[in-house]
Design a protein that fits this description.
four-stranded antiparallel sheet; Alpha-Beta Plaits; nine-stranded mixed sheet; alpha+beta; elongated
């Protein structure tokens, strides 16, 4: 027997948190009866429907996507802007972004239909490094970068220590390229951190997620993760190694 929200997440319908919302909103039936109580346990023989659609466990899929600028990290947008799943119309499974990248941020984003995998990689307690490269206004001094490394106080709390280094500087244009590695996921965190030290972001790209890189991909392209990569990500999230 498994908890209903876990079964829904494992079927790739939604993350476990979203599955819990669907249950409490009365959108889930078990054997023809609406179930709204979280923690309800079901077996393999139970007939489960989510929003009127019978639950069928999909084959698990895991993708590495190079998100272009001007794309929403969501499955739909009420303003009819392009979303990441628009690039996956030929994938039969319903995949969802694992975490998010801002509308104006490019780079590495994972998508999957495995709700448990998504929950594992996005949980705040699992410190998975994400490396960004930012083009910023001005040329940061070493002391400013050390502030990022110690943690910056933002309106929603102090950031965890980061890794930061100056990659290059163009003093004639008064811009610089800064590499920064964090393991948190606060809203627009990298942009806010760099703005807090007086160097607003002009362009931002996520180049690495854990050990994964964008090598071989152009913006708008994706590839499927190998079984070994999926296993490594799960182990990393669970053990930190």
């Amino acid at each position: 027997m498994e908890r209903l929200q876990k079964v829904i997440a494992q079927a790739g319908v939604a993350s476990r948190r979203k599955a819990e919302e669907l249950i409490t909103e009365g959108k889930v039936k078990v054997n023809g009866q609406v179930v709204t109580e979280l923690g309800t346990k079901v077996s393999m023989t139970d007939k489960i429907e989510v929003e009127g659609i019978p639950l069928v466990e999909e084959e698990k899929k895991y993708f590495l996507f190079y998100k272009p600028r001007g794309v929403i990290s969501a499955v739909k947008d009420d303003k009819n802007r392009k979303v990441v799943t628009d690039f996956f119309k030929h994938v039969s499974q319903r995949v969802y972004p694992v975490g998010r990248l801002d509308y104006d941020t490019t780079g590495l984003l994972l998508l999957s239909n495995d709700g448990e995998f998504t929950q594992l990689l996005t949980h705040p307690s699992h410190e998975i490094n994400k490396t960004y490269v930012a083009k910023v206004k001005g040329v940061p001094l070493r002391e400013a970068l050390k502030k990022l490394e110690r943690g910056i106080v933002l309106e929603d709390g102090k950031t965890a220590p980061a890794k930061a280094k100056l990659q290059s500087a163009d003093r004639s244009k008064n811009t610089a390229i800064v590499e920064i590695t964090i393991h948190e996921g606060k809203n627009r965190q990298v942009r806010r951190m760099l703005e807090a030290i007086g160097h607003p972001v002009l362009k931002l790209k996520r180049e690495k997620f854990a050990f994964l890189e964008l090598r071989g991909l152009n913006a708008g392209e994706y590839r499927e993760l190998t079984p070994h990569e999926v296993k490594r990500l799960k182990v990393l999230a669970q053990t930190g190694q």
